[in-house]
Amino acid sequence: MNATAIGMSAILMWSMLAFLTQATGAVPPFQLLSMTFLIGGLAGMATWPFRGGLRASLPAAVWLTGTGGLFLYHFLYYTALRHAPVAQASLIAYLWPMLIVLGSALLPGERLAWFHLAGAASGFTGAGLLALGGETAGATGDPAAGNPVPGYLAAFACAFVWSGYSILSRRFRNAPTDAVAVYCLATSALGLFCHLMLEETAWPRTGGQWLAVAVLGLFPVGLAFYAWDHGVKRGNIQLLGVAAYFAPLLSTLLLVAAGVAEPNARLALAAALIAGGAVLASGLWRRKADTP
Q: Which residues are CB-neighbours of 65 under 8 A, at least 6 positions away?
């Protein structure tokens, strides 16, 4: 399997993130973060005896960027899905591909074009459509979950954190993929510390919830990061960027198919605006049209 295909497998795994997160029950966000990243980090380290492991010393900035990006994004993501409807919060969080395009356009040698702004407007319109939709049920469908606004704000923050992390990571493209295992374990340790300081422990209550935690840690919060890191460093990053724009659609379709989200016109329109806005902002359609 080539590097680009490996990178695309990460997108498929990430499309399961919202479904698996809500399936873990009422595990607090910091506790869930610690549990899943421990699994993801150990899964990566399990391959070290066969490949030599992490040998190179890396600058502190690499560790801070990797650990900080993973920790903040997933804490905010788990928080969003605990306080807002799953499909809506997940779609808002998936504004990150478009924000990466906008952020990259502001880098030296790049410029901001009309289609960047039009794509941004489309994506934020879709997110606003979800946030103003009026649903108040939480991720678990519990009417007592209350006001979903904090969840929506956390989802917006997710998008900015992950896009910032991805853009900053371009500076460290020579860092080995094995470093991701250390990011995961450091993130797990931070999550455990915050959990002990701020939360009450609540373990999964059923076998299905334990299974969701395990699969979440192995795939969307584990192998997906290794696959994405390998793909963007050694594969066709442009193609991977386009494929990432469809992650929110895949995630929403899975939630609807599983009965977690109700199919309706507002959800469909919002998904189309967010994914369509990201494709528009990418400008790839323009380059293809200019090709003789």
A: 165, 168, 169, 172
CA distances from 59 to 62, 65, 140 (A): 6, 10, 41
Give me the residue spans of the domains in the chain.
3-290
pTM above 0.85, yes or no: no
**How far is 92 from 104, CA to CA, in rounded Å?**
20
pLDDT tens digits, residue range 71-106?
Answer: 999 999 999 988 888 888 888 888 887 787 777 666
Q: How many CB atoms lie within 10 A of CB 273?
A: 22
- In angstroms, the first-to-last Cα distance of the chain is 31
19-66 pLDDT, tens digit per residue, is: 999 999 999 999 999 999 999 999 999 888 776 666 667 888 889 989
SS (H, E, C) the chain: CCHHHHHHHHHHHHCCHHHHHHCCCCCCHHHHHHHHHHHHHHHHHCCHHHHCCCCCCCCHHHHHHHHHHHHHHHHHHHHHHHHCCHHHHHHHHCCHHHHHHHHHHCCCCCCCCHHHHHHHHHHHHHHHHHHCCCCCCCCCCCHHHCCCHHHHHHHHHHHHHHHHHHHHHHHHCCCCCCHHHHHHHHHHHHHHHHHHHHCCCCCCCCHHHHHHHHHHHHHHHHHHHHHHHHHHHHCCHHHHHHHHCCHHHHHHHHHHHCCCCCCCHHHHHHHHHHHHHHHHHHCHHHHHHHCC
- Chain center to CA of 140: 20
